[in-house]
Amino acid sequence: MSNQSGIAFTHCAFTAAAAEQGHGHDHTHAKRREVVVAGKRVKTVDIHAHCCVPKAMAVIKHPLEAPGLLMEDTSARIAAMDSQGIDVECLSINPYWYHAGKDEAAEVIRLQNEALVEFCARQPDRFVAFATAALQHPELAAEQVEHAVKKLGFRGVSVGGSVAGLELADKKFNPFWAKCEEHGVLVFLHPTGTRELEPSGRLNGSGLLTNTIGNPLETTIALSHLIFEGTLDRFPGLKICAAHGGGYLGSYANRSDAVIRTFPDRVGPLPKKKPTAYLRDGQLFFDTIVFTPEALRHLIAESGVGQIMVGTDYPFPWTATEVDLVLSTPGLSDADRIAILGGTAQKLMGIKP
Fold first, then answer.
1. Fewer CB within 10 Å: N-end or C-end of the chain?
2. Residues 4-36: tens digit of each pLDDT
3. For residues 227 and 278, is the Cβ–Cβ distance under 8 A?
4. pLDDT > 70: percent of the chain
5. What are the extents of the domains in the chain?
6. Residue 6 DSSP one-character state
7. Degrees to nearest 5, angle at CA 21 with 307 and 79
8. Contacts by 143-150 with C-beta closer than 8 Å and gap 24+?
9. For residues 158-195, b (16+ Cβ closer than 10 Å) or e, as one string?
């Protein structure tokens, strides 16, 4: 396959801030940071890192997020990883193709997945990737997962928080979920925003609320539907990692338990377990993008150490360094820190220790 279908990495208007935080500055000559826990070198894995494939985007004429800041090589990205102490990035592409027709969507996915495989093969010690799928065409998406796993070697697939106005829990998507469960792939769920709220103006004004609130809100809605509509019960082998600490679910999941007691006749068919149980039972995972040691401590208290993996949101400078967040969070054992920093992600994504 020609390198012309290769991969490029996007930045945004946050570049100045990124430079201060190790995301955008030229660290070409920076020494690679090695993370050590209990005297042993730890392999760290970033479960949440963004990229794009311009040739695929061109199929449906989707604009680049910041054309002037594309990187055709990876020197700045690897330098940032080295500075932060990230050994391996798990690359994902936020879905922009959910409105596309079947033929166009198939071509977008083919180009993206082949480019991701080619790119990761060039530096397998630093990069793995989540496959993409045309979820708006569920049967096609199921076929794409099958191909991605059996022919291309992927261990994960990425999805948005909703699909052209439909919830991920819609039974229309059962063929996709069934295939993900069959092959044991990790599903990385990243929000695309709460576009349904935007026409109301509720998220207008200061604060970039469409992102600040809208993104974690969509994740919270998506996960809540997956619980209450029975998707996680129908596919108990599913493993889903929700970006940005799973939105607000981990902070207020006990209200979901309480609504069953408070309005038992209005909840609808009940899930097999209390909603809070789904945070701990090995189906739902979360990245560390919650910003403070106390927030991470609380998320771990609600979900368990084994459900948490490092995420940086590269190249967007939301966080200074997630490695230090894990190292500075109180109450964690050495084994806990090793699991969060990379151990859990290695198992789920098939990364060699």
1. C
2. 344 444 333 333 333 334 444 444 456 899 999
3. yes
4. 90
5. 38-349
6. -
7. 85
8. 144/106, 144/109, 144/113, 145/176, 145/179, 145/180, 145/183, 145/185, 146/179, 146/183, 147/113, 148/113, 148/185, 149/183, 149/185, 150/183
9. bbbbbbeeebbbeebbebbbbbbbebebbbbbbbbbbe
Instruction: Report the distance separating Cα 63 and Cα 60, nearest Å.
Output: 9
Average pLDDT rounded to a whole number, residues 106-119:
96
DSSP per residue over 94-132, as a string?
A: ----TTS-HHHHHHHHHHHHHHHHHHHHHSTTTEEE-B-
Q: Is residue 250 within 8 Å of 289, Cβ to Cβ?
A: no
Give phi and psi for 314, each to the nearest 5.
Answer: -55, 140
Fold of 38-349: TIM Barrel (3.20.20)
Place of tokens 């576009």: 195
CB within 8 A of 12, min separation 6: which ones? 65, 66, 69, 315, 316
Tokens of 9: 């990495």
